[in-house]
């Protein structure tokens, strides 16, 4: 694992999941059937969201809790994350309430989208306060309008479980097409030095794997790459297994700045 997972409920599952060669696969699923398929295939993290409701469209917390309960029986070692849905950064009270609801469902990580703008810094600060309470938070910084370097820096001194970069507009190409990968590398290295886990997502495809191997985030998020049609379609087992095989076959690369073990 490139970074240490902060102490939080489910931390042991996350530490174990991120203990192999990076990056590990986070696969987003919308229901219990897809969650079971992903867990059975051996993905490192099962991520619950509703793709038809936006980049970080959320499921009802009661559905999240039911899926988590089922996976704890079927795949007890597999960590589960969930999004809270797409909220404007100004909606601090609503975001906090939904964070607490999703955390109470038993997930190992709660993903919260952060759109750069005037209210984003206050949102990161509020999320940091919740993280200090022990809530397993993962801010997801959206990079459609450019690399949010200042927000990334604000995340580094918080007790977050991880920090991610993603895109909202999946039709505009992958994150690695929107942002020069050479600009991502220093940010990932900064987080690594702070012991913070990192994730990259945003319409990532199998052809992005060589660049992801070079960048070495702890995990990479996939939805479009494992669906028939676009990301709103059904998860396709054949595509999922092909992605995981390609990820497993990629050469192990030491994180930039670190010597191979």
Average predicted confidence as pLDDT: 91
Indicate the proportion of strand residues: 5-15%
Rg: 16 Å
Report the structural category: alpha/beta
- Which strand order spans the largest sheet, edge to edge or round the barrel? 1-2-3-4-5-6-7-8
Order of helices and strands: HEHEHEHEHEHEHHEHEH
Molecular shape: globular
Quaternary organisation: single chain
Note the total helix count.
10
The total count of strands amounts to 8
Give the low-pLDDT segments.
Answer: 1-9, 257-261
Q: Work out the helicity level.
A: 25-40%
Q: Termini, distance in Å?
A: 12 Å
* Main pleated-sheet profile: 8 strands, parallel, barrel
Descriptive account of the structure:
The protein is built from ten helices and eight strands. It is globular and about 45 Å long. The model is unreliable at 1-9 and 257-261 (pLDDT under 50). With 261 residues, the protein is α/β, with parallel strands linked by helices. The chain starts with 10 loop residues before the first helix and ends in a 12-residue tail after the last helix.
């Amino acid at each position: 694992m490139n970074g240490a997972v902060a102490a939080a409920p489910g931390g042991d599952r996350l530490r174990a999941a991120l203990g192999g060669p990076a990056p590990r696969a986070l696969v987003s699923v919308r229901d219990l059937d897809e969650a079971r398929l992903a867990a059975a295939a051996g993905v490192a993290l099962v991520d619950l969201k509703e793709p038809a409701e936006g980049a970080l469209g959320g499921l009802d917390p009661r559905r999240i809790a039911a899926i988590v309960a089922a996976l704890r029986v079927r795949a007890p070692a597999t960590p589960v994350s969930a999004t809270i849905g797409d909220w404007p950064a100004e909606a601090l009270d609503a975001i906090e309430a939904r964070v607490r609801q999703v955390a109470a469902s038993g997930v190992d990580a709660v993903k919260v989208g952060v759109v750069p703008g005037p209210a984003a810094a206050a949102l990161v600060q509020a999320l940091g306060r919740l993280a200090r309470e022990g809530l397993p938070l993962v801010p997801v910084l959206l990079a459609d309008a450019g690399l949010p370097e200042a927000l990334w820096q604000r995340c580094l001194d918080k007790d977050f479980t991880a920090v991610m970069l993603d895109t909202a507009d999946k039709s505009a190409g992958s994150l690695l097409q929107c942002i020069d990968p050479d600009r991502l590398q220093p940010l990932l290295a900064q987080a690594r030095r702070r012991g913070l886990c990192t994730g990259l997502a945003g319409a990532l495809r199998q052809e992005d794997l060589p660049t992801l191997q070079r960048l070495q985030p702890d995990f990479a998020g996939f939805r479009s790459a494992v669906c028939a049609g676009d990301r709103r379609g059904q998860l396709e087992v054949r595509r999922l297994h092909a992605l995981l095989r390609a990820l497993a076959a990629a050469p192990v690369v030491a994180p930039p700045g670190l010597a191979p073990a």
